[in-house]
Specification:
mainly alpha, 3 domains, 28 helices, globular
Length: about 575
């Protein structure tokens, strides 16, 4: 039985159902009654958001218009803006449930798996340079996992149990291998990324400013990994994870000089004691030429302990991060600083999300759907009069979110028609390459997404190079001079603005008057222009009619560089 199979056996549906029943007490009976336990989760979320502020419904922003909602949803669930045609189709749809249908459509598309790949790669690896596992292999592992609807706890278990020795499961080992089994780096990142707690300052002593972060928390996590080491095969030069059968974790506080020792543990959960050492403690004995494998592995206990139902911090952390992805900030913000001095803005809501996520088997797609269905998510980004002073953590208005580098790249390629032109070229090349090719294949959405991604990936990498920031991720927007110069003079964008082929600028050059302005606004901003905008664009093009092509290029460039385009709102 593989480590993952063993983990799955420990996490049977029966056990999960019993644990869920026990953990349901986290939400009080009175709260469950007032929210309506049988109500859909998205309705209970909206009730929880408004709790405690009697005037909330009067102060909360109105629903965003259909155009704003569609653009927001495409960016959050598919990673790009809609095409002009997709935006028009959504606005023209008169069905009352069209928003729910669009949510389901995007969640079921291959573009969603790609969006999750980008988002979780950034969250888990924080744009670190490759060390031992190639980024493409890792990202493909993530994309396939989300495409098949793999539960979050199972995905995490695979990352924490893979040792890199098996080619099939090797990509999952990137989280540990590319941190080179450095105990301090791994311990801090386990706490931050999976538990929402940055325990770095608790390494040498209890945290001086945060009462909740104790030295034993840090070293309890370290104890899962202190026996593991980076092994490099002398022949293949390929790195994998080896492990010793013994080794304890002792620590001393620099404040008190008191020494202590800990077995592996997750925060305040009980320590996991080692079984008695076997007469032969190794399956593969230590040797400089081979990777040692102990009979009992502390590292393999990490996945079990991290995803165990008793570890509430695990699920609270991930629902908080998914909330932040959709809403613009966490219920706990920063997302890796959960402690009593930085309480959640809506404690009962965080508990509700965590327990519902657990009850629905850590289904990321389910939670994202419920979040997207809420009034909270679908609100306008415009404050009502009198509500301007409401804090962001009230979620009374849709918060502005800067586009990620990947979202920005794909949205600019969509707006300038590069994606449509490239896909048409790929279809033609496919049909011309072999007379036996099946024309129906090019209509397959998965084929289209993968072919398009592989063809345009280098452009995305360029945007990541300019707009991505290595290290701990933040939701704050801080434009740099290099980014401004790239948008002004970058070869990619300048090339996309040339009025040739199927480019947007070439298409706009064939149009006149309101038709041109309408196509421009739907292509770039995913909405129709208002009367004032029609007038302004018309006057601008009239003023520069002697050099109309250049004027159209400048018009599109200005729009792509604008705050309206670079933020999700």
């Amino acid at each position: 039985m593989t480590p993952v199979d063993s983990w799955k056996a420990h996490s049977s549906k029966l056990q999960r159902s019993l644990n869920t029943l026990c953990c349901a007490t986290v939400i009080s009976l009175s709260a469950a009654s007032s929210w309506g336990a049988e109500s859909p989760l998205h309705q209970r979320i909206d009730v929880a958001i408004g709790a405690g502020l009697t005037e909330f419904e009067n102060l909360a922003a109105d629903d965003a218009g259909d155009a704003a909602f569609a653009r927001r949803l495409y960016l959050d669930l598919a990673g790009t803006i809609p095409s002009a045609e997709q935006a028009r189709q959504f606005l023209a749809d008169g069905s009352p449930d069209k928003r729910a249908k669009l949510i389901d459509q995007l969640l079921g598309s291959p573009h969603h798996a790609r969006r999750m790949q980008y988002a979780f790669d950034t969250m888990l690896m924080e744009r670190r340079p490759d060390k031992h596992i190639k980024a493409d292999q890792w990202r493909n592992f993530l994309r396939q996992s989300f495409a098949e609807g793999k539960p979050w706890d199972e995905l995490v278990a695979e990352m924490l149990t893979a040792d890199g020795s098996d080619e099939q499961s090797r990509p999952a080992a990137k989280f540990l291998l590319d941190r080179e089994l450095k105990t301090d780096a791994m311990t801090r990142d386990l706490g931050r990324i999976f538990l929402g707690r940055d325990l770095q300052c608790a390494q040498c002593h209890d945290h001086p400013n945060i009462d909740d972060y104790l030295q034993r928390h840090y070293h309890g996590l370290a104890a899962f990994l202190n026996r593991s080491y980076l092994f490099t095969d002398p022949e293949s030069k390929q790195a994998s994870i080896g492990e010793k059968a013994d080794g304890t974790v002792k620590f001393t506080s620099v404040f008190t000089s008191e020494s202590d020792e800990t077995a592996p543990r997750v925060l305040e959960l009980p320590p996991i004691e080692d079984p008695p050492l076997a007469d032969e403690p190794y399956t593969v004995k230590p040797d400089k030429k081979v990777r040692s494998v102990p009979v009992y592995s502390r590292r393999l206990q990490l996945a079990l302990a991290m995803t165990d139902s008793s570890n509430v911090a695990f699920r609270r952390n991930i629902v908080n991060r998914l909330w932040a992805m959709m809403m613009g900030r966490g219920i706990v913000e920063p997302v890796d600083m959960s402690h009593s001095g930085n309480p959640p803005s809506h404690p009962a809501l965080l508990d509700l999300l965590a327990e519902e996520f657990h009850e629905h088997n850590y289904d990321v797609r389910y939670l994202l759907r419920e979040l997207a269905l809420t009034k909270t998510y679908q609100r306008s980004s415009l404050y009502k009069v009198g509500a301007e002073n409401l804090a962001d953590d009230r979620f009374a208005v849709a918060l502005l979110k800067p586009l990620t580098p990947e979202q920005l790249a794909w949205s600019m390629m969509q707006a300038t028609s590069l994606t449509d032109a490239t896909l048409d070229d790929l279809k033609t090349q496919y049909l011309l390459a072999d007379a036996e090719n099946d024309p129906a294949q090019i209509e397959d959405l998965l084929w289209q997404e993968e072919a398009l991604h592989d063809s345009l990936k280098s452009h995305v990498d360029t945007f990541v190079g300019f707009f991505g920031v290595a290290g701990i991720q933040t939701s704050q927007f801080d434009a740099s001079a290099n980014q401004a110069l790239f948008l002004r003079n970058g070869a990619e964008l300048q090339n996309w603005l040339e009025p040739s082929g199927q480019r947007l600028t070439a298409h706009l050059a064939t149009l006149d008057g309101p038709q041109l302005v309408d196509e421009f606004y739907f292509s770039v901003f995913s909405r129709p222009p208002n009367a004032e905008e029609v007038q302004q664009v018309t006057m601008f093009l009239e003023e520069y009619k002697e050099n109309r092509d250049a004027a159209i290029e400048q018009l599109v460039w200005a729009a792509l560089s604008s705050a309206e385009f670079r933020f999700n709102h």
